[in-house]
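Final report, Chapter 2: Outcomes

The project's central promise was a pipeline that accepts a single protein chain and returns its three-dimensional structure in a standardized token representation, suitable for archiving and comparison. That pipeline is now operational. To close this chapter, we reproduce one record exactly as it appears in the project archive, with the input sequence first and the structure output second.
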Amino acid sequence: MSMNRRRFVAALPAALLLSAQAANASPSRLGVIFVAQSTCPYCAAISPVLKQLQDETGINVLVASMDRQPVLPFTTFEDGLRHPLTSHFQSVPQVLIFNSKHQRITHHVGGVRTMRHFVTRLSSALQQSSVL
């Protein structure tokens, strides 16, 4: 059965949910740093997925905006150009997995080849970081 784009995009948070729940339940609390900018179409596609991930699992998402503008649906952000973990990035989107147990970034998911590929890589990164 072929899945149309709308149904595929609607299913993306569910695809992340299993790994995110496992990550959230682990002793190592995870966070996500989303390096983005308001004018990036890939960032606009990813941000609702990350927002739903945050809302449904409690994994904190910090938006580091490289153009000092909100990346909707997130309305709050840090200045990505001044943040010590993000100021060196030259391209967006970048997603960093922060493991508070180890107090460091454990995984980096950069760019979007396809949404399916991005979600697979993010899911894997969340799972791997949760077991460290």
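Archive annotation: The two ends are 37 Å apart (CA to CA).
This record, like all others produced under the grant, will remain available to the consortium after the project formally closes.
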